[in-house]
Design a protein that fits this description.
Blueprint (H helix, E strand, L loop, with lengths): L2 H19 L2 H13 L3 H12 L4 H18 L8 H21 L4
Helix pairs in contact: 1-4, 2-4, 4-5
Length: 106
């Protein structure tokens, strides 16, 4: 995959991720960037691998959730990230409300 094809595929996955996962998508992508530590070669190789999979948006979403949870709990850098804590808490609160509604609870 050349650079043009890679950029087009990233844009496609980005649009799909935003469509499927809403506002949480950007939080997940940002968390991955923070956890990755800014090593462009390592991140680029990992992204090429993810983009070659059947459902890269879900892979990014799952990795992002894990990264956000790790940042929030202090598993990265040894100190909890206050912004990640706030974001993680809001996501989990919403998920709990949705689950209760789905199950017929208030």
């Amino acid at each position: 995959m050349d650079e043009h094809q890679l950029a087009a595929r990233v844009q496609q996955v980005e649009a799909e991720g935003k469509s499927r996962f809403g506002d949480d998508w950007s939080k997940y992508v940002s968390a991955i960037g923070k956890v990755a530590g800014g090593n462009p070669q390592q991140l680029g190789a990992a992204m090429r691998e993810v983009l070659s999979q059947n459902d890269p948006a879900t892979i990014v979403q799952q990795a992002g959730r894990e990264a956000l949870a790790n940042l929030a709990s202090g598993n990265v850098g040894g100190v909890p990230d206050a912004e990640a804590e706030r974001q993680w808490s809001a996501i989990r609160d919403r998920e709990r409300r949705e689950w209760r509604t789905l199950k017929g609870h208030r």
